Amino acid sequence: MDRYLEMQTFCAVVDAGSFVRAAEALGLSKAAVSRYVGDLEARLGVRLLHRTTRRLSLTEEGEVFVARCRDLLAGVEEAEAELGSRSAAARGLLRVNAPVTFGILHLAPLWGPFRALHPQVRLDVTLSDRVVDLVEEGYDLAIRIATLPSSTLVSRHLASTRVVLCASPQYLAARGTPRHPLELAGHTIIGYTYWSGGDEWQFDGPDGRVGVRTAPCMTTNSGDTCRAMALAHQGVILQPTFLVGEDLAAGRLVELMPEYRSIELGIYAIYPTRKHVAPKVRALIDFLVQRLAGVRFA
Q: 212 - beta bridge partners?
């Protein structure tokens, strides 16, 4: 007996509330539906349904098993839909949202190669550091940088980046190099509007977590502006390595207190649902995974 058909029939009986209505929904005879469920119970060695002349109800074992059956059947449907989307050509308008700086530095060079692979896709790329509502605003996919992806959306991890404390050598020569987070109170701070902790900066150090409340001389919603101020020797910034990594490598900026770590962020492709993913969306996700998967910005 086909186990898939047994589980499908069992779930249909539970959903319909009767063997007769399940048979109608499946296009089978009532006898066939009864036989499939009976064979399933016999094979498992448990009763899944309480049957009376007036109603059906799940046994305790049936409650557990129907939940597992639904998961398995949904997984089969998703796998079939994914294969179908992969075999179809990617075409049509693809609306993408991404953070401004990451979009400029790391995604902009990828759009050309992606279009070369998928010339029938028309890209509409919007850069914004605001968290957009994919469904309400009509985006097919978004790139988000966060500690954890949204629990209400489907996500695919692409890369990782550290958030580091840094300043220019010239600033440090003039103001001194802080050795402990609490010493930041005596330094000029350039704040970032979208930092999740606001002016409260948290670090994990040798003696546990340390928090310090900063008093920025300037706050901006642009990581690029923070970086520009640091390069102009104007203060200390807390920014991701995908933005300041090259400056650190070249010595234009210096990482401060590396033993006191800020957070590490994941870079994710976010999309609304696993079901019936359009070929154009699947193509972009696969492309970004290939180009970015496993990357950890310095």
A: 201
Tens of pLDDT, residues 162-175 = 999 999 999 999 99
Which one of 3.40.50.1110, 3.40.50.300, 1.10.10.10, 3.30.565.10 gives the CATH number of domain 3-87? 1.10.10.10
Alpha-carbon distances, residue 14 vs 38, 258, 264 (angstroms)? 14, 58, 46
Does residue 1 surpass a pLDDT of 60? no
Provide the CA 33 distance to its chain's centre, in angstroms: 41
- Helix, strand, or coil (residue 142): strand
**92-151+275-287 shares the fold of 3-87:** no
Domain 92-151+275-287: state its class.
Answer: alpha beta
Burial tier of 7 (Cβ tally within 10 Å: 0-12, 13-18, 19+): buried
Angstrom CA distances, 30 to 9, 11, 24, 33, 48, stand at 11, 15, 8, 5, 18
Q: pLDDT tier at 131 (50, 70, 90 boundaries)?
A: confident
Closest CA to 158 of 265, 295, 280: 295
Top CATH class, 161-264: alpha beta
- Domain boundaries along the sequence of the chain: 3-87, 92-151+275-287, 161-264
- Determine contact, residues 254/175, Cβ cutoff 8 Å: no
CB 189 within 8 A of CB 235: yes
* Local structure of residue 105 (DSSP, 8 states): I
Eight-class DSSP state of 138:
T
By the 8 A CB rule, do 259 and 205 touch? Answer: yes
Give this prediction's pTM. Answer: 0.67
Ranges of H-type helices in 120-215: 134-137, 169-175
What is the residue-averaged pLDDT of the chain?
Answer: 90
Query: For the CA atoms of the chain, what is the radius of gyration?
Result: 27
Between CA 154 and CA 276 the distance in angstroms is 13
CA–CA separation, 121 vs 124, rounded Å?
A: 10
